[in-house]
Every structure is written in C-alpha cells, then in structure tokens.
Prior knowledge:
CATH class of chain B: Alpha Beta
Largest interface: A-B, 87 and 83 residues
Strand content of chain B: 25-35%
CATH architecture of chain B: 3-Layer(aba) Sandwich
Largest sheet of chain B: 9 strands, mixed
Largest sheet of chain A: 9 strands, mixed
Strand order of the largest sheet of chain B: 9-8-7-10-6-1-4-5-11
CATH topology of the largest domain in chain A: Rossmann fold
CATH topology of chain B: Rossmann fold
Distance between the termini of chain A: 60 Å
Bound molecules: flavin-adenine dinucleotide
Helix content of chain A: 25-40%
Strand content of chain A: 25-35%
Number of strands of chain A: 15
Number of helices of chain B: 7
CATH superfamily of the largest domain in chain A: HUPs
Number of domains of chain B: 1
Order of helices and strands of chain A: EHEHEHEHEEEEEEEHEHEHEHEH
Radius of gyration of chain A: 22 Å
Order of helices and strands of chain B: EEHEHEHEHEHEEEEHEEEH
Radius of gyration of chain B: 22 Å
Oligomer: heterodimer
CATH architecture of the largest domain in chain A: 3-Layer(aba) Sandwich
Structural class of chain A: alpha/beta
Strand order of the largest sheet of chain A: 7-6-5-8-4-1-2-3-9
CATH superfamily of chain B: HUPs
Amino acid sequence: MTIVACTFGDPTASGEVEELLTLARRLSESNASDLRWLVAGSAPRAAVEELAAAYGVATVDRIDDPKLEGAAPDASVEALAQYCASRPPATLLLSQTFDARLVAPRLAGRVNATVMMNAVDVENDVGTVRVTVSAYGGDTRAVYELTGDGPHVIGVMANATAPERSSGATPVINDVSVDLSRIEERIRIVERTPEQGPRLEDANIIVAGGRGLGSADKFHHVEDLAEALGGMAAASRPIVDDGWADPSRQIGLTGKVARPALYIAAGISGASQHMAGCSAAKTIVAINRDPDAPIFRYARYGIVGDCIELLTELTNAVKAR
Amino acid sequence: MRIVVCAKEVLDPDAVNSYAVAGRLEIGEDGRTITQAAIPRLMNAYDEQAIEAALRIRDAGVECTIAVVSVGGDQADVLKQAAAMGADEIATITVDTSTVDYHVAARLLAAYVEHSGGADLILCGRQASDDDQGVVPALIGEALGIPVITIARAVEVTSDAARVTRVTPNGEEIVEADLPAVVTISNELGLPRYPTTAGRIAARRMQANVLSPDDLGLTPDDLQPRVALTKQFVPQVQGNCEMLSGDSPAQIASDLIERLRADQVLP
Ligand SMILES: Cc1cc2nc3c(=O)[nH]c(=O)nc-3n(C[C@H](O)[C@H](O)[C@H](O)COP(=O)(O)OP(=O)(O)OC[C@H]3O[C@@H](n4cnc5c(N)ncnc54)[C@H](O)[C@@H]3O)c2cc1C
C-alpha cells in the first residue's frame, strides 16, 4: 500500500507542504505503508530534498513538464492520472489550494477514485479510510468512510495539522515522465488582473471589519488602523457582497485563509464560515457591541463596545507612540 | 441553447450556526444527522445564484431553455422556487438521498443531461453549504468529458463558447472555453432575483419531470455509494477570552495596545 502526498510547483511558496507531509507520514506509519511525495511542476531540487529529509519522506517522485506551468488543470489532471495508472496509490493527499480544489475531484472522476475535500484528519482502518472533514462552514465535523481499493483522493485543509519534523535519510528522487503531448488546455485565459501588493495569506497583522461597521463609508476606519499597525485590512463576506470592501479582502471559508500573528475583528459576529479563514491566528482581538457574540469564544482579548469608536481610539493609541 | 442548472436543498446554514454557537445543535440517534425540526430547509444559496446566472444569460438576449434538476424525491420546494424564478423546465431524480454519495449524485446528474437532450452549459453552485465539498460539478464534467470552470462571478455565452470571470486568490481572471462546459457560481455573482407574482403563478402550473435512475439508464451497480457519512459532531472551541473594560474607549484602546506589546504580539 502506498500513500502519496502531492503538491504542485515550488513547495517553499506556501506553508502547507509541511502540514501535508506531516499528515501523510502519520498515516503511512499507522499501517506501515509506503510514503511517497509527488512533486508536480517545476520545483527547486534542493528545497524538495531538504523538506523531504526534514519530514521523513524517503521517496520523492517528480513530474516536471512545461505543460504543467501556471495552474494548468487539464495537464495536471492528466499527469496525475498517468501517475496513478502506473503506480496506483491507496491514498493520494493534496493540500487544498484553490487549484487543487478543482484538480482533486477531476482526477477522482478520471481514474474512478473516491474523493473527499476539507479533510482535517485521515486515518486508516481495516479495509477503509476514515476521513474527518469540516462541514457547515466549520460548525460541524463529519466523519466519512471511504470503501474500495482506492485510490482515495483527499484534499487536506490548511491549518488542520501542526507540522512535525521527523528525521529521515537523504531522500531518493525519481524523475517520473508522463506524456502530455496531446494535452491542450481547454480553458483559455483571456485576461488576468493580478492583485498588486502584499497578500492577506502572508500578512502578520490583519484588521478586519464586518457588518457592525454600519456602512460602506466606515471601512476606512479598518484601513486606518491596519495602516497604523503596518498590517492589512480585511472584511467579512456580507460587506464584500455589499461592496463596502473589495472581494480580494474577504476572509473565510470562501475567501482567504490567513494565519497572522494578530487578527483584530471589528463588528464581526464570528460565524464559523468567517472563522474558517482566521481561527489559525495566534492572537485574536474581538470588538463587538454584543457581549454574547460568538467571536469572543475565539478571541484572546475582547472589547464590548462600538467598533468605530474603538477603531478610532486604537489608531490614535498606536500613532501616539 | 440548453442550460441545465443543478440545485439542492440544504439546512439553513445561519440557523445551523446559531444552534451550534449556542451549543444546542442536535445530532440524532444515528450519530450523524442534524435533527432540529426548527431549522428551515432552503435552496443552497450558491445554487440559487447559479439559476440567477442562467437567467442573466437569457436576459442578455441569448435564446435558451433553462432546466433545473435536483437529485432526490423531496426537492419539490427547490424546484417550485426555480420555476418561480424563471426556469423553463424542472426535473427531479427519485432516489433515496441518504444512499447517494458525491459520485452517485454526479453520475445521476450527468445521466440526466444525456437523457434530457444534452446541455450546452451546466451551471452549479460552487459548493453546497451543508457539506461544503464542492466536488459534484467537477465529477459531472469528468463524466461528460467536458471542461469545468470554477468560482465564477459572471458568465456570458456566445453560440459556441463561454466567457467566464473568475474570482481567484490572485485576482480576477477572464477565461474562455468551448461549449459544452460546466461552470460553478460563487457569491460574487450578486443577489438572485425574487420570483415575481406572475412567476409564482406560472410555477404552480409547472409539472416537474420525475425520473428514476432506471429512466436514465443506470443500473443498481451505478448507484452503489463508496463514501459513507458515519458520524457528525460539533467541534469544541477553546475559549480563553479576557474582556477588557475601562472608563473610556481611549483608555481601553491603550490598555489593549499595552497588553499586545507585553505579549510581544506588537513591537
Ligand atoms: C457557504 C457559506 C460560505 C460563507 N463564506 C464566508 C466567508 O468566506 N467569509 C465570511 O466572512 N462569511 C462567510 N459566510 C457568511 C457567514 O455565515 C456570516 O453570515 C458572516 O461571516 C457574517 O458577517 P458579519 O460578522 O460581518 O455580519 P453579522 O453576522 O451581521 O455580524 C455583525 C456583528 O457586528 C456587531 N455590531 C453591530 N453594530 C456594531 C457596532 N456599532 N460596534 C461593534 N459591533 C457591532 C453585531 O453585534 C454582530 O455581532 C458564508 C456563509 C455560507 C453559508
């Protein structure tokens, strides 16, 4: 039996590879199956070797093909399907990135595998794989059993596993070749408006505003404090939907998943779908006029009061220094 | 042009959230089903937006038939609402939804498309707000061998291609694919329309096309689930919140900043 952890592109570009390799290793150790790390797309060899050694992965399979450049879904699905055909894994785990969210179920459809997304934990049991996933935006956890010989394709959520290093020998790196000569991407990119500047995913400090701000013209209070702190401004979904903030600012299940050192939530109730994008923050500060707002359950510090007043005073206090 | 929209009913996610937060979400004796009778059932909001996307294509002057299909014999309200919004056809596939996994659902929906005159465009919500899986649209695309474009904010069609504005983590992106294609709709599309009175009256007269898996040429083998929900629970949130208070907002603000500095969260 083989467990394959699969990532795309440069593994050092996101913090999720460490989590994925940790979960995959744990799973392989639990029933003594082989562990392989499949690296698709171009990735610096030294970085791959170093990560594999640090996380106890003895075998790395690399598929590098120019057609895999730039989140190419048809080429990615085909490459993984050929890989699965030549060395069928029992379980194939992927970090659940934006692109993997499409590639994983398409791969499953292509190779007749079962698929499960939003996994926070995966266990092996006799004849079944048991996957715990987040459901209802995080309000519940659902446990599913996947039957059959697999492969089972599983998307693993960010921030669900604490990375754990494990000493390992120098990994063996295999170059696996696939034939993508017949692949022509069916989705053509006409225009891209790349977001400029820093990403919420990488921000160390985030100040986020919600419907409690009251109106669109109040969002600048969030931006003011973010700027004073050298952080980034963010928003809950309703105020994005209402046009108070740009969609690129949305934190949550269907927005960005951030893990800043400090997350200040102003006028945000703390619905699980919002918390899915920020609960990994080291310190959460909640400002809400309702003392029973759920956000306080996640917060380290809470302030019951008017968020506009407090955002203004916080900005003053930071600037006063 | 024929547009098929897939829609399903879910428990109202806001109500589920309220009960979960209050620690009163009830999981039934089977250990996996939410049993609160007080939680309303409604159409998955993204599916409503998928119907809206189809209607906007029609509003843009594209001649099309819009068919809304749902898996499960108990989807009458969803289909009524779809009809009232402006769907031309509604269809339901009669199966016991408790035995339908994602793979079976996709197989049923793909078979429906093939048996109902095909589709130039298949629209789905990006995910259902109950299980959040979002895999069925991709599985339908694979079953039919057609491209899948996810997380759309706007969809336009010409006679043979779809032009889709996607919301990606790196910004907006406009892509094109030849039809037929599957497109999943995200909340950035905007609010779905409310049914008009005339729409509601017309909906009352519209009969759903009721189909069994057998009608769709599927065998019991095709309906064998491989993914089974065995348990559901509410995760615990570890609360250790310290409430700050003071004489004035200014004082509370400086107290907070001081604490964050003491914790070395701020420099
Ligand atoms: C499938 C699905 C996906 C979703 N994805 C996301 C997502 O990615 N991101 C997201 O954010 N949401 C998402 N949601 C929505 C989510 O469920 C909540 O509805 C949303 O997060 C609530 O936003 P809010 O806290 O800004 O608004 P509300 O819930 O309306 O809360 C406003 C809060 O402000 C407080 N308040 C009001 N006035 C003041 C004041 N003057 N001062 C201080 N406090 C005040 C109120 O007490 C209240 O707690 C999703 C929902 C679904 C069903």
